[in-house]
């Protein structure tokens, strides 16, 4: 069984939604109908990501069904007869639910300062949508672990999202960028214990495909992941260069970091089930492999540089090393179309 993946990578123009949609349409013209199983576009790809203030992004918030990102995804999914996922800034509904209290609020949420005074109003969510091959919306996911640029305007989601999709997708988890990092108030402990919230969720849910939509910053462009966590190298069919190469080379520090943050999905384990079988706590069979589709953007916004390097990783349980199957360059514009053989796994839909 094969999985056919397309990742769309380019540098969007901040706030120029229609121009960015036109660019995406141009790039996706090379994808023929029924030739791929899923098309991925990065976090907030049509609006851009780093706005100077909350007021600047407020005019670009989208309706989760009728907005330009959802309309684009539905149209492309129907045209190509495949799944399509993309990130966008979502406008909160008039009676939004506060994820912390489950209380309905008739107005946007108010952030409070250290002295208890109201400081900022959060009126949106950093979200991702996935549409199916007939143009139906499957899920609207809200980023759980907000990055510092999200906090002034976005509310966090209530947890990661995993779908049971037909073969070859299987159990598919959708996440956004900083979801990969340690979630506050937790703090980094060690390479062995993490914490690794997203990876542990994937183990628990028996995730076969992890889709990660990013606007990940370049580590040498004022975009350090804000972490002192130790890294382990990705196993690749190429030798990682010692320093950054040209625009068509991947950004190796970033690739290594992504793989390290998914360590529980490939690290050697000290304890094994005696009969050789493994099940996740919710009785979903745990696959031997998780394939990770990471779709990132490149370009510059307000002095910050994005890392590009969209990639496909193969993570085999207990192998002791992640494997890089494919990667785009750090400033490579285009569509990466990749095919990988995946093992069959009977999934429990209950």
List the helices and strands and how they pair.
Blueprint: E1 2-9, H1 17-28, E2 38-40, H2 54-58, H3 68-80, E3 83-91, E4 96-97, E5 104-105, E6 109-112, E7 118-122, E8 124-131, E9 137-142, E10 161-165, E11 170-176, H4 197-205, E12 209-213, E13 235-236, H5 252-261, E14 289-295, E15 298-301, E16 304-307, E17 311-316, E18 323-327, E19 334-341
Parallel strand pairs: 1-2, 2-3, 11-12, 12-14, 13-18
Antiparallel strand pairs: 1-19, 3-8, 4-5, 6-7, 8-9, 10-11, 14-17, 15-16, 17-18
Protein name: Carbon-nitrogen hydrolase
Keywords: Hydrolase
- Helix-strand pattern, N to C? EHEHHEEEEEEEEEHEEHEEEEEE
Instruction: Round the Cα radius of gyration to an integer and report it.
Output: 19 Å
- Put simply, the count of helices is 5
Strand element count: 19
Strand content: 25-35%
Can you tell me the residue ranges where pLDDT is under 50 for at least 5 consecutive residues? 97-107, 111-119, 223-232, 237-244, 272-279, 346-350
Basic shape: globular
Largest sheet: 7 strands, mixed
Provide the helix percentage.
10-25%
- The average pLDDT score comes to 86
- End-to-end Cα distance, whole Å, is 23 Å
Instruction: Give the strand line-up of the largest sheet.
Output: 10-11-12-14-17-18-13
Give the class from helix and strand content and strand pairing.
Answer: alpha/beta
Organism: Hygrophoropsis aurantiaca
Keywords: Hydrolase
Protein name: Carbon-nitrogen hydrolase
């Amino acid at each position: 069984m094969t999985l056919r993946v397309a990742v769309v990578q380019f540098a969007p123009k901040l706030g120029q939604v229609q121009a960015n949609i036109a660019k995406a349409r141009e790039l996706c013209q090379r994808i023929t109908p029924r030739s791929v199983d899923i098309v991925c576009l990065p976090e907030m790809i049509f609006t851009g990501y780093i706005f100077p203030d909350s007021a600047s992004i407020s005019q670009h918030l989208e309706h989760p069904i009728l907005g330009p990102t959802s309309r684009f995804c539905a149209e492309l999914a129907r045209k190509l007869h495949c799944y399509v996922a993309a990130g966008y800034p979502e406008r909160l509904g008039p009676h939004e639910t506060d994820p912390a209290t489950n209380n309905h609020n008739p107005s946007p949420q108010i952030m409070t300062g250290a002295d208890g005074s109201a400081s900022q109003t959060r009126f949106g969510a950093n979200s991702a949508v996935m549409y199916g091959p007939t143009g139906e919306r499957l899920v609207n996911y809200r980023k759980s672990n907000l990055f510092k640029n999200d906090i002034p305007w976005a509310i966090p989601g209530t947890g990661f999202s995993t779908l049971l999709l037909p073969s070859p997708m299987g159990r598919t988890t959708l996440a956004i960028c900083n979801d990969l990092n340690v979630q506050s108030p937790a703090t980094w402990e060690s390479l062995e214990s993490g914490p690794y919230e997203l990876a542990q969720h994937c183990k628990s849910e028996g995730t076969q495909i992890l889709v990660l939509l990013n606007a990940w910053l370049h580590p040498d462009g004022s975009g350090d992941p804000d972490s002192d966590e130790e890294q382990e190298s990705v196993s690749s069919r190429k030798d990682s260069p010692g320093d950054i190469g040209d625009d068509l080379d991947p950004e190796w520090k970033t690739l290594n970091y992504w793989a390290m943050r998914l360590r529980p999905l490939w690290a050697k384990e000290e304890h094994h089930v005696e009969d050789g079988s493994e099940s996740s706590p919710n009785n979903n069979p745990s696959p031997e492999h998780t394939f990770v589709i990471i779709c990132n953007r490149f370009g510059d916004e307000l002095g910050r540089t994005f890392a590009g390097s969209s990639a496909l990783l193969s993570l085999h349980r207990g192998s002791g090393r992640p494997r890089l199957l494919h990667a785009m360059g750090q400033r490579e514009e285009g569509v990466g179309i990749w095919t990988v053989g995946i093992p069959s796994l009977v999934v429990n839909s209950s």
